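Quick one: structure tokens for this chain, please?
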Amino acid sequence: MITSPLFSFDVAGRRVFVSTGSKTQTVNVCTSENRRGAYDARYRLPAAARITGADLPELASLMALGDWLLSTRSAQLLGPSGVPVSMPNVPATAAVGPWLAAAVGMVERAIDGLVDDFVRHPYRHRVEHSLHLQLFHELVANAELDALAPIGASGPRTGLIHKEWPMPADDGERRGLFDLALLTPGQLAVASLEQFRQGRIVPPVAVELGLDYGRSHLAQDLAGLAASGVPHGYVVHFTRLAASKEKAEVEALVHAAHPNVKIAYAHVQPDGTVTVKHLDEA
């Protein structure tokens, strides 16, 4: 086993230098000159995932090396300055087709079912995050949505429904997170493992949920989805609070037109009064 802080190996005719520090390890792939310091690609590994010469599998290409580091060693792809590289987004338009149309129908039926269940059992959940889990459970009850799909040619597979999926944003901007997002097999087929790891796939379907919040939370959810470019955005806004002066403002937002967003709404007041709107109800 090699324990030196610096060792090297060859892959497909390229020299690869591995430098080990106290907290991280850097794998540096040389250019065709095979000269130390001139690199085509660099990867940073956390201390717990450091490699030695004895760890290396048989690697037929530089792409295979990168995929192995990303999938098994929690590596980050670095730019020339040593800063992690932000990958380009896989657009939502890579997901068009009959599969998506069928999936959207499944998502909408699950959301409307969630509305009906909330009206019947408004205190099934104490907090919003439990509501997320209920919707996730309803979605994965569909075999088509519970499938695993390959991530590009890298080998690993992933699910199609994801919690806390990053919103698309320009480099340098802080990215929000969708409560639930649906990716498609077509998108994943053209994505790299690093694009997946960075959340650089724009989901064609995303859901934001709220429980016992007011107008500002609803407006924030709507604005985030509208700005995201997600073709099929959904906001689910439930409340069990007593009616207040905000009720009219909330319901004005619920009934307003939102080009890429549908809204489901239910208000079950302490006195039993119910106001409800399914996704396609005006």
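The first strand starts at residue 6 and ends at 11.
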